[in-house]
Design goal:
- The chain folds into 2 domains: about 190 residues, Cytochrome Bc1 Complex, Chain A, domain 1; about 190 residues, Metalloenzyme, LuxS/M16 peptidase-like (Cytochrome Bc1 Complex, Chain A, domain 1), CATH 3.30.830.10.
- α9 crosses α12 and α11 runs parallel beside α16.
- Strands 3-4-2-5-1-6 form a 6-stranded mixed beta sheet, sandwiched between helices. It has a 5-stranded mixed beta sheet with strand order 7-11-8-10-9, sandwiched between helices.
- The protein starts with a strand and ends with a helix.
- The protein is built from 16 helices and 11 strands.
- The chain is α/β, with parallel strands linked by helices and about 400 residues long.
- A hairpin with an 8-residue loop joins β9 and β10.
Length: about 400
Amino acid sequence: MNSYYIKLNNNISIANIWIDGGTSLDNKDKKGLNLILSSLLTRGCNNYDNYQFSDLIDSYGAELNYEAYEDGISICLKSLNEYFEKLFPLLNLLIEEPNLYEKDFIYCQKESLNNVKKSKENPFNMTFNNLKKIIYLDHPYSYNCLGDEDSINNIRYYDILNEYKSLKKRNKYLLTNNSKYSFLDLINIKYSTYETNLIDMQSKLSSKNKNNYIEHYSNSKQTIMIIGSQTCPHNSKDSLSLKILESFLSYGMSSLLFKVFRENNGLTYDSGVLYPARKYNAPFLIYLLVSEENAALTLNLLLSIWNDLLSKGLTKKQLSLAKLKLNRSFLHNYRTCEDITFRKVRLIGLGMDPFYDEKVEDLLKDLTVEQILSVTRKYLASPCISISGRKKVCKNLRKIWKKRN
């Protein structure tokens, strides 16, 4: 495991581990495998069973959290400084000597099934997962990180053991703010500016692809619409232009989405942009939640905004404000030691400069409206849309979409 130290003045000690390869490595018929494995990893190790392990963590008032993402697994240990030295060795044991008992596997499998069933109660999840299916087709990002009921039921105990053998060979990175360990100081690592050569797992959706609309019927009076495209990896030079678009569209009450849909027309319950950091082509999505009586007007306005982004782009004044808000957003995201260590170990896992965020202000200086327009046209020219609502509403929105596209 590659281990690093970062100086953060705090009485809280953090150790954040990033393990390359997450749910995108799951076999097609065993989606949810890596999520179950990550849950099992944190249920005891060496001489500690699940209850003993939990009691040990709790007795020091510490926290142990995990999460499985498309690109990797995150494990974070958090405690007061005076207890950290006693707890820190457990992290290595979780990776090298986890218990992985079959009885715990059965429990984690049931928990995953319950989470999948509960996620279906939220129509936004259904709308989002449907859009990923048509944006990414058979790409690993097209699947729900939680998996699905059939796939989870298809996972056997020996699948977990085999996947763990694979996990032990994956790249692992640890970042801590505790200075008692002789790890390499993060400031001494040499990195390229911000782009490495990653092989794209799938080319962008072809403009000739007609499967750009999908709908989900629900009895709710709320209509959900999500429009977007797959774009570029986080370490691409183009990602900064897309972050500017995200800032322009959705950051604060000066954002375009807020002014158009809430301030000027009072149409939406919620609106925003989803543009997550991904190792491969990330999705760039605009989402809106509206009442069914406002759905048609909202979609027409949304399509006008999308077309304006492609044809007109941003003005210099809009770009200046978007740059300012983007810079402030990085400060907002660095509120806790946990936030900081997770972000930086994630950047290390991508092969990027861990101090990339601190250098964004300089990188933004030379970014022009012409460059942003070029990137917008490159990735957002052939959007897809996913809609959830009553059948009659979806039928009307489908007509609007087909007419405008």
